[in-house]
Amino acid sequence: MPLIALAIAALAIGFEQLVQWKYGPLGIVAFILLTVGIKAQNVKLSGVGAGLLVLLLVQSG
């Protein structure tokens, strides 16, 4: 079980670094808002984070 948790944490950190590299500080803020909103089960917070990520994806694409 600790190995699975370690692997998931490593993937999350890797994804966070990828978002920061590709989308800059605003991407990290959006990712953090999305993550905190999901963990706290706050729909508004996760919606804002998801919306920011979508706007960043559309802008770069």
Descriptive account of the structure:
The chain has 61 residues and is mostly helical. The chain has helices spanning 2-39, 43-60.
Provide a short characterization of the protein structure:
This protein is 92% helix and 0% strand. With 61 residues, the protein is mainly α. α1 (2-39) packs across α2.
Structural category: mainly alpha
Unreliable parts: none
Radius of gyration: 13 Å
> Share of helix among residues?
over 70%
Distance between the termini: 38 Å
What integer is the average pLDDT? 86
What is the quaternary state of this protein?
single chain
Beta fraction of the residues?
A: under 5%
Got a strand count? 0
Q: Counting H and I runs of at least 4 residues, what is the number of helices?
A: 2
Shape: flat
Largest sheet: none
Order of helices and strands: HH
